[in-house]
Amino acid sequence: MTSVLQPPAYLTPQATLQISSQAPKILKSLRPSTIPLPYPLSLLVNTESPEKWQTYENLLLACLKTGDDQNAFLCVEELIARFGEDNERVQALLGVYKEALAKNDADLVKILEEYEEIIKSNEGNMRIRKRRVAVLKSLGRTQEALRALVKIVDVSPIDAEAWAEMAEINLEQGLYDKAVFCWEEALLVMPNAWNVHARVGEVEWMWAGATDDTKEKLRLVSSSLRRYCRSIELCDDYLRGYYGLKLTSSKLIELLGKTQKASSGFDSAGGLTAPPLPAVESLNELTTSKLSEIVRRGAAKESGWNGYNEAELIAARELLDRDTQNVQR
């Protein structure tokens, strides 16, 4: 069985359903014995531990994702009984529970009002501020959500989560430059986050696809390629990094073939120029080989290669097949 202590964000839908189906059994195991024992024997049945309350929290989220509102409520009750209604983490989890049960926008507006009352009494409650942003987004009030995020980073400029959320909202609106800026602010907080480097590469790749200026497209694709290179430098065998590197290197070969060979160094504006064509071609070959290995060994679920997402493996295989067809033509 999948561990209930594993972060919910990294669980597959199947694993989440598996945990949720075991909710009654897990809840029963977490409750202390009802048989009173004298001290010091009572210490033997004391289940107070960080793991216990993390289990309650993760089980709550798993139940909400699968629609098991009854067991989710039992988790909320236990958390409130232990930490109290004024605990910031409990307030946020209770808010998540209420949001999940909301049937319409009117219910969400009521929850939003509750959040605003909590913030009035405690302006430093960042968890509730972030839940407020989530509700504003659900209501389609994007600009209000952005303003709320700006207030969060004004107070806490090292809040990488807030910068990331702001980046995604800007990206949804097609504001690529602002999205890249926000992600770069997040990287200042966690410079070794390989997935964030790859995400910046993805944003720049999308930005390049939205411009018709050949020079700007060349700059963006070159920058995207460097972001992906950094992501695989930080994380060996990172599928999304190699996938992006394959895309950008192939596109860069096409662009450099239509223009002069670029020389490594800095342009007049102080930015990095595109890498030389031979270097990009060599990188493309190495990337093709590595991506093929990941797809082959990941699909076979070899030992040490079985953690890849099936959909990502399929996408990588299709990219390689498409590249092979283009070469044959």
TrEMBL record:
What is the official name of this protein in its record? ER membrane protein complex subunit 2
Name its cellular compartments. Answer: Endoplasmic reticulum membrane
**EMC2 TPR-like domain: which residues?**
113-203
Secreted keyword on record: no
Q: What does the annotation say about its assembly with partners?
A: Component of the ER membrane protein complex (EMC).
Tell me its family. Answer: Belongs to the EMC2 family.
Please indicate if the UniProt record lists Membrane as a keyword.
Answer: yes
